[in-house]
Amino acid sequence: MRIWIDITAPAHVLVFRPLIALLRGRGDEVEITSRDYAQTIQLLELHGIEAEILGRHGGRSRLGKARSLFSRLHALRSWAGSRGFDAALAHGSHELTMTARRLGIPSATTFDYEFAWLQHQLGCRAATRVVVPEAIPPERLERYGVHEPKLRRYPGLKEEYYLADFEPDPAALRHWEIDPARTLVVVRTPPDVSLYHRRSNPLFPQVLDHLGRNESVHAIVIPRTPEQRDYVRGLGLPSVLVPDQAVDGQSLIALADLVVSAGGTMNREAVALGVQVYTTYGARLGGVDEMLIREGRLIPLSDPRALDLRKRDGERERVRRDPAEMLDVLLSGL
Description:
This protein is α/β, with parallel strands linked by helices. It is built from 12 helices and 13 strands. Helix 3 packs across helix 4 (94-103). The radius of gyration is 20 Å and the shape is globular. It starts with a strand and ends with a helix.
């Protein structure tokens, strides 16, 4: 088969890394497109994945996002039109599913947060298959025109699939002088450029200030954009460390004592790697986070003083799932 994959955000690089290897390992031809957004291109290079870079993120404004959408749709259609793809895969890229439908290519899209309304109205309606975790109630997807047989579901977290073969690299900490006696905290900034996260998150600056002034802590903050990086550095907090470029975030999580994240993927990566994790997410919680909170694997945070900043030791429990099963679900019916 000839497979087209569109990777539009940093987290998607990790999702598709094992799937690309599986497809190519069985003899399929895989071509990849991407866009210039946050650390996406750097992570593609870090993992040795070649991609055609078409378009960039539209920024905060709805007008900018609309312009970016129409420009990229045109670029994708021109690029993919003559390539004879048999199927197309995406993680929430409505631009792929819309283009694939226009070109008559069967497509599957997957995601694990169901309240990105505009993205799913566009992407789910155009897709041939929509693949989500079992934790998301099917009735929440009906507003996007998703019913059987379009809907496909899988058990567990997507992170348990793409991290199945992962082992942390201790060299991920080589950029900093880390005192092993201090508690190592990995912090992820809010998704400020996302339409579904418009409300401000006043808790996050409080967390930064609390950790950044604690002499018993090293807080490695992983920003999403250069603007976020500059903002955090400008605070001048003595215990805060900020990388200059894309890093091996999964190794940092695995080596950390705890994680505090205002996003979603890093929360679930910490859960999959057995690391204690707190969420400061400011928008409506999705079905996956609701499940993890019920099970005690994700802790909602409302006051930075509630953070348990003790050092962790001992073996961490992990759940590993076969990524080939995820690939089978994505390709089912295509």
